Amino acid sequence: MSQLKKVINTERLTLVPISQAHADVLFTYWSDDEVTRYMNIVPMKKIDEARQMIEMLDQYADQGNAVRYALVLGDGQVVGSVGLNAIDTLNDGAEIGYDVGKPYWRQGYGKEALNALINFAFDTLQVNRLEAKVIPDNMPSLALLEKLGFEKEGCLREKEKTETGYSDLYLYSLLRKDQL
Questions:
Q1: 4-20 pLDDT, tens per residue?
Q2: Contacts of 100 (CB under 8 A, 6+ apart)
Q3: Is 43 exposed, middle or buried (0-12, 13-18, 19+ CB in 10 A)?
Q4: I want to staple 93 with a disulfide (CB 3.0 to 4.6 A). Which of 8, 88, 100, 140 is the partner?
Q5: Closest-CA residue to 16 (of 109, 83, 115, 97)
Q6: How far is 77 from 135, CA to CA, in rounded Å?
């Protein structure tokens, strides 16, 4: 599914499919307790974990199941990543995921990247429904999704296993017709 590996440009960012060239900087974000606090990964301890994650995501993209993009500024600095997970071609859906490195929080990069990803999913991939699952305490992410037009559909009780037990997840969705 070569269209998944398309480069996407925004005003300040270039979204490029992640590669091993991004491993070092993504490792710094994916190993930061504050960045990963609400992600469904344990903070990474070794650079090899980031390399393995990137390799796995690249395989998923080759299979058409998922894709992850590095968010690259004009000067080449990677500020985070966004992606489509669990691409469901049978039902024309996908789940979005995103992270931004702490030095780049509250600068609009997440919103800008997600806007581009949403447009790409609806216009190029012809997705009908996008979903996001968010831990209820993640107020910045909940606010971002609502700014982007996502609607809260409900709570998936104890949906995700964590180191301390189970966590609820709020389910948000955005339909193509919501964008018209």
A1: 888 999 999 999 999 99
A2: 29, 35, 71, 79, 80, 109, 110
A3: middle
A4: 88
A5: 83
A6: 28
* DSSP string computed for the chain: -GGGG--EE-SSEEEEE--GGGHHHHHHHHT-HHHHTTSSSPPP-SHHHHHHHHHHHHHHHHHTS-EEEEEEETTS-EEEEEEEEEEETTTTEEEEEEEE-GGGTTSSHHHHHHHHHHHHHHHTS--SEEEEEE-TT-HHHHHHHHHTT-EEEEEEEEEEEETTEEEEEEEEEEEGGGG-
Show the tokens assigned to 22. 């991004």
**Average pLDDT of span 77-84:** 95
Pick the more confident residue, 161 or 153: 153
This prediction's pTM: 0.91
Average pLDDT of 47-57?
Answer: 93
Tell me, what's the pLDDT at 2? 61
